[in-house]
TrEMBL record:
It holds the Pfam family Snf7. Residues 282-358 are annotated as: Disordered. GO terms for cellular component: cytoplasmic side of plasma membrane; ESCRT III complex; multivesicular body. This is Snf7-domain-containing protein. It comes from Absidia repens. The lineage of its organism: Eukaryota, Fungi, Fungi incertae sedis, Mucoromycota, Mucoromycotina.
């Protein structure tokens, strides 16, 4: 058979794997509950003597709390309290030669002080034993109630009216007692639930306190205060406002540049319009001046031709006197002879003008 140490470690391992260490109610057991939960090891039923030996060993080596005189429902009970869970106490279970064994650190050389069973633990034992007794009473009353119903039906079928009435009255009494027991049981179980919940609340509050202390320590180490946060927020606001002003200045500058470029383009367009208008005027003037110059040149040429003709006419000798002086030819010759002589060369102003036109 396995050693007592192996059995003790197996019990601790099963207890921790079951998750009972998270509940203040389940961590406290009576001897009856301990025997029911851990009285069998690898198919072998352990006697009460074996269990008491295990309890003494676990008390010395693993700090198990045992109190043999705790008042419960109707009598004294043995209270057994498991120590707080320690993850370093147990490792995983392995299988060697078709037997389960738990790999553990070497057993401690010195004994560990046992877990103390306080008044709240004793109250839990009292409530648990009362709930156990109430459950037994409810089950017994339920059986008695079913028996009374069967008796009343049996007496009624046999036409035994007094016995039937007695069975009915007993049934009513049992129902009343059963209802009271159920109400008491509900109250007890509610108390146990609240105790368990309060234990969990204590754990949560402790975690809150540790978190608050850690947060305060972080604040103190890093100088994080309301004043520093306000200063940071003020600096951030100032920086953002400065950035906004810079953005606004850049936007205004770009708008000014775009406006100036627009005015410059407009001025260039106006200048182009003036240039085009001047070109159009020059073109129109040229169209008007060229025909006038051409007409002047034509008139000048005509004048020159007329002068040449007059010069030739002056060189023509007068016709001989005719026998008929009254003829038309004689009259014209007399008229041209009376006219002043025109120089053969054009005047200097006309020559200069002709050179310019040429």
């Amino acid at each position: 058979m396995s050693s007592i140490r192996t059995i003790a470690l197996s019990i601790l391992h099963r207890y921790q794997q079951h998750g009972s260490h998270f509940s203040s109610v389940d961590s406290i057991l009576t001897f009856t509950e301990f025997r029911s939960d851990y009285g069998v090891y690898q198919g072998n039923h352990l006697t009460d003597a074996d269990l008491w030996l295990l309890l003494r060993y676990m008390t010395c080596q693993y700090g198990l709390g045992v109190d043999s005189n705790v008042r419960g429902y109707g009598r004294s009970h043995v209270a057994i309290k498991f120590p707080e869970h320690n993850e370093n106490s147990i490792t995983a279970t392995t299988t060697t030669n078709n037997t389960n064994s738990i790999i553990m650190d070497p057993p401690p050389t010195n004994t560990i002080s046992s877990t103390q069973i306080n008044e709240s633990d004793k109250a839990i034992i009292s409530l648990k034993t009362t709930c156990k007794a109430l459950h037994d009473q409810v089950n017994k009353l339920q059986l008695q109630l079913e028996s009374a119903v069967k008796q009343s039906l049996s007496y009624s079928s046999k036409q035994q009216k007094p016995q039937a009435l007695y069975a009915v009255k007993r049934k009513l009494q049992l129902e009343q007692i059963l209802n009271r027991r159920l109400q008491s049981l509900e109250t007890m179980e509610t108390l146990l639930l609240k105790i368990d919940a309060s234990h969990n609340d204590i754990q949560i509050i402790q975690a809150f306190n540790m978190g608050v202390a850690s947060l305060k320590q972080i604040f103190n180490d890093n100088g994080l205060t309301v004043t520093s946060v306000d200063e940071t927020m003020l600096n951030m606001q100032t920086t953002l406002e400065e950035h906004e002003r810079v953005e606004e200045a850049m936007t205004n500058g770009q708008q000014y540049i775009f406006t100036a470029m627009g005015r410059s383009n407009k001025i260039n367009e106006d200048d182009n319009d003036d240039v085009e208008e001047n070109i159009q005027q020059v073109s129109d003037n040229n169209r008007l001046t060229l025909p006038r110059i051409a007409s002047q040149e034509k008139r000048t040429r005509n004048d020159l031709e007329d002068d040449d003709d007059n010069a030739h006419l002056s060189e023509i000798p007068p016709p001989p006197p005719s026998a008929t002086p009254n003829s038309e030819l004689a009259r014209l010759h007399a008229i041209f002879s009376a006219l002043p002589q025109i120089p053969s060369d054009p005047p200097r102003s006309k020559q200069r003008r002709l050179r310019q036109l040429a």
